[in-house]
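[Q] Does anyone have a clean structure-token version of this?
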Amino acid sequence: MSATTSALPQGGPRVAGCLPCELESASARAVLYRDENWACEVAEGYDVPGWFVLRARRHAEGWGALIAGEAAGFGVVAQTVSKAIQAVTGAPTVYFISFGENYPHLHFLLIARPEDLAPAAPWTSANSSTRRSMRWNRGIPRPT
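[A] Here you go.
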């Protein structure tokens, strides 16, 4: 499922200390998918079964920093890796989560959610955290 290239698009530099940039050096065993603009890997040390990192191969900080080819190809890549993760894990659902706070490099945590996983699992916590954060960002007091 891997279309591997070695050059970063547009000759984009890697940023020291940026985990998504460092994944460019991931072993072939960790790579689920690579094309000119996007890559999906298992991040060493974060290797939870069914968890992957989908990232722009060039250090682009957010959607607005993508070049046209990167933005245009995202949907096809997202669908391709989602189907691959579902095929490998048997999970009916793949979550895409992106906060960009620890690493502003545009990346997504892809999480295979098994059908038999209880609702009280991390998905509920992530959803709850996101809603609290959204209220706080609009000036609504945080719950105590």
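[Q] Thanks! Anything notable?
[A] Residues 1-8, 129-144 have pLDDT under 50 and may be disordered.
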